[in-house]
Design brief:
By secondary structure, the chain is mainly alpha-helical. It has one domain. Helices cover about 85% and strands about 0% of the residues. It is built from three helices and no strands. Helix 2 runs antiparallel to helix 3. The longest helix is centred in the first third of the chain and has 23 residues. It is rod-shaped.
């Protein structure tokens, strides 16, 4: 094995170790909390759609609120 090959292998090992350390630092999303927020968002949407025949402005506000909850859902 040549010196150059040994250096390449060492570089690959260092890169692998760096990737592993970064992956271990990354926080995994909380699946349970994500699911609960998703159910809440769906409930808000259902209420918004039911409100359409009665109040377009109210339904719009509720549906926009559900989108805000959707953004929070993606941040969990």
């Amino acid at each position: 094995m040549q010196v150059k090959d040994r250096l390449d292998i060492r570089n690959l090992i260092e890169v692998r170790d760096l990737i592993r350390s970064k992956m271990s630092e990354q926080q995994l999303p909380d699946a349970r909390l994500h699911q609960m927020i998703s159910f809440i968002k769906s409930g808000i949407r259902i209420v918004g759609y039911i409100m359409i025949p009665f109040s377009l402005v109210g339904a719009t506000v509720v549906l926009v609120l559900s989108e805000v909850v959707g953004i929070v859902e993606e941040l969990v």
